[in-house]
Please model this.
Amino acid sequence: MAADLATQPLLYALLLAGGVGLGLPMGAAVVAAGAMFGGAIGLVVVVAAQAIGLAINWNLCRHWCRAWIVHRIQRKRRRQWMLSLVDARLSWRSVLLLRLALLPMALVSACCALSATGWRGYSLASTVLVLRFAVMVQAGARGAEAISGQLSIGTTVLTGLAIAATAALAWLSGVQLRRRQKTDEF
Model:
């Protein structure tokens, strides 16, 4: 029984890494990790899985799926601005802003992989995703506590503050990205 409990986070991490690697939307799975494993273990599972998945996704996008991704971006009118990222050398600040903004993570990952940005800059700037994952995992953990009737006011307030701060940061990142887009400062 104890061995089964120990393998559950590992199996979940492998499934999550595979989904991220394939560019699937995995936000619900990130929240579910918090509900299933709690805040601390859930965050470790998610961060490890996302790191592995992003490395897989980077290589798939850069080396195998390039033409298909560019074609998909070209078909969406509201995402035409992302074509300017393809083959551009993105600064670490630009990757950081793209990661913080509330844009689809798989699309941002694909555009960063198609850019001339190196793996090191991309991976270091992507560590900022831990903030987003922490909020999502905590939301799942708080939801599980609320369902079981064990939710405290203190954790609710702290989770609410974290969500508000993350939303404000995402909004400010979007504003800064729009400024950079207008001045072609990627």
In short: DSSP finds nine helices and no strands in the chain. Residues 153-182 form the longest helix (30 residues). Residues 2-182 form one domain. The mean pLDDT is 82.
